[in-house]
Design brief:
With about 375 residues, this protein is of the alpha/beta class. The protein is built from twelve helices and eight strands.
Length: about 375
Amino acid sequence: MNPDGLPDRADLERELRNLRRGGLPALQSLVPRGLRAVTLHAGYAEGEDDLADGAERLVRAAAERLGTDDLIGRAAQCTFGLLPGHRGDPAADRRRAAAQVYGVSDERYRHSQERRVVEQLAGAILAEAREPAVRAPRPAASGPRPAVRPAGAPPAPAPYTGLPGRAGSRPVTVHVSPIELLRDVDVVVSSENVHLEMSKSFRPTVSGALRRAAVVDRGPEGPATDVLAEELAAWVRARPGVLPLRPGTVVPTGPGALAERGVRRVYHAALAIPDGLGYRVDPQDIATAVAACFARARQERAAGLRSICFPLLGAGRGGLDRRTSAEWLRWSIEDALTADPHWSVHIATRYPEAASLFDAKVPQAPGA
């Protein structure tokens, strides 16, 4: 132990390696000594009654501190079962998911990257304890802890949805909300690469989020049917030699579990072209994809399709900045609605500032 009552980093790393094997549920039977000391020191628990839940919240907070857009942060979430629906996954499945973050075999991850992930997570746990902060009351350990706000600050506003906006001269509805959380939109559009390989479900992308939300028959041992990825794979198998697709091609699938939210179809727009370790998207292909989405929707209009929702295509891992994506979306949607104005068009973005790119005005939060 250090003079401040916190454990040595090496001791904490050893405890985390053991926790990796048992998983977060193991904390309910025993919180190891070092993690116990950090949890109490950092104020994540008041005593024995909430010690296990507090320790879990501390581990989650430390993983968030590493960054969910960072390889180490994402691998830590997978390794310790911190992603929604994966808390009780077996150790082998969690290691496999973490290895996929780095694109290596399970064995290579175990001998290399996993050591670094555990080391960095231990450091983040200690940093979380040593950083002075005003901590909000802790909720139950069913999800990530809330962001810390100074005393007296107003609560964070809920995502704004249903804001009136425009694509040129045509009205659209802008949702400042993750696209997978929308309700009662007939078609949602996902941005994919030209090989129709969806993003991993644990990655913070539109493709990954829709893939995760569409899983059906989720049981105690994990998802049973990866609906969107399996339907895309079946579409490709039925067309030997079709890959890579021409950028702008659109492939439809069913909604899987998204049907519970009123979604009837998912249109997969093949846009991202592999480029080294990343991707590139030609903005002109956004126009091709938008036109193809409306053409496909017209073919299926007899089934009652009337509304369609687009994310900022090509932004994020596609490499385009949000303004460029929004400009091409606006032009393309205006063209489509000029030809056929009977569609209800929606835009979904996580970024309030992006709403203004479609002339939607996000209300100011009180005290902002």
